[in-house]
Automatic annotation (TrEMBL):
<feature type="active site">
    <location>
        <position position="108"/>
    </location>
</feature>
<keyword id="KW-0515">Mutator protein</keyword>
<keyword id="KW-0239">DNA-directed DNA polymerase</keyword>
<dbReference type="Pfam" id="PF00817">
    <property type="entry name" value="IMS"/>
</dbReference>
<dbReference type="Pfam" id="PF11799">
    <property type="entry name" value="IMS_C"/>
</dbReference>
<feature type="site" description="Substrate discrimination">
    <location>
        <position position="18"/>
    </location>
</feature>
<keyword id="KW-0227">DNA damage</keyword>
<keyword id="KW-0548">Nucleotidyltransferase</keyword>
<keyword id="KW-0460">Magnesium</keyword>
<dbReference type="GO" id="GO:0003887">
    <property type="term" value="F:DNA-directed DNA polymerase activity"/>
</dbReference>
<dbReference type="Pfam" id="PF21999">
    <property type="entry name" value="IMS_HHH_1"/>
</dbReference>
<dbReference type="GO" id="GO:0009432">
    <property type="term" value="P:SOS response"/>
</dbReference>
<protein>
    <recommendedName>
        <fullName>DNA polymerase IV</fullName>
        <ecNumber>2.7.7.7</ecNumber>
    </recommendedName>
</protein>
<keyword id="KW-0479">Metal-binding</keyword>
<dbReference type="InterPro" id="IPR036775">
    <property type="entry name" value="DNA_pol_Y-fam_lit_finger_sf"/>
</dbReference>
<feature type="domain" description="UmuC">
    <location>
        <begin position="9"/>
        <end position="188"/>
    </location>
</feature>
<dbReference type="GO" id="GO:0000287">
    <property type="term" value="F:magnesium ion binding"/>
</dbReference>
Amino acid sequence: MIALQQRTIVHFDLDCFFVSVECLQDDSLRGKPLLIGGSSDRAVVSACSYEARKFGIHSAMPMKTALRLCPHAIVRSGDIERYSEKSREVTAVIADQAPLYEKSSIDEFYLDISGMDKFFGSLKWTTELRKKIIKESGLPISFGLASNKLVSKVATDEAKPNGQLEIHFGEEKSFLAPLAVEKIPMVGRETGAQLRRRGVETVKTLSEVPISLLEAWMGKNGIALWKKANGIDESPVVPYYEQKSISTENTFPADTIDIALLHAELVRMTEKIAFELRQQNKLTGCITVKIRYSDFQTVTKQATIPYSCSDHVLLEKVKDLFQKLYDRRLLVRLIGVRFSHLVQGNYQINLFDDSQEMIALYQAIDHIKNRFGWQYLMKGTNVTPPERKMYNR
């Protein structure tokens, strides 16, 4: 068997990110039970402070329930634009220092610093980077340093709040062994309950279950779970600049100046790729709109936005960009929409002012689109008469 090359992977995680940004703006909030989300009875908790968690509060909980558990909690509506700005600020610091990094979500990063020991010492270099991030952003951040992404992420969780932890090569299994099975990424509440019913409560016990038995219990997920329990993770750090964009463009069968038609097509395209974003559990931080006129001149306009994958947020910006871009009043041959600056995340993080019904609506819409196809559920304004249909590319 050929031994895998030893790697050095860092996982950075901004602690209670939304809460920390709010505390940075208002120092009086520190040390208090703080809830981020809408203030109405139908709103949900998007994030909460460690102090609030002591009362049993967690994200996605109905705000009404959270306030019953902790009546004296402070509620802030949240500001995804400010959170996005702080995320980009931290990204800039990491990008300036790290040889290879992956932005896995709005507040998480993986760094591959393999070989750094020859020059600086991995722990020393990472510690200094953490101090730099804290100094320049004002935000608390934790890190785990290990031989792969899985163990580094678990180490970060164990180092929180605002701490750091190194797991030396060869110590992965002994580090994971005493932890509860729920500490393993991909083991949610349902999977954890299923394992516990079978007497599997710790990672050590999980690692000792025959892989064939885990596969029988959970299919292919059982094999992946066995590898994680044994500290095995070969997944690479994907360079952030290589994160793919999601785009679509449509060429008209005949050049047009029909504004209503153009707007309807923008809605259709935006809904299509926003659904793709949610399918991939991603958010976009940049939107580009493209127009090609009948004379083949092509123009584009883009804007950086607060991270989102919600139709109503993205549609508003797409329409705004189109209005600013379409100023020649010429016949249009092609239009396109592209989402870039992608990070992992879900739509709940920017529904600070929305209700449980809004979240349920998105989930129901995506369920129908998953089952029947994205084109079977669209906004009424997007229904195009047969004679106006276009060629998709």
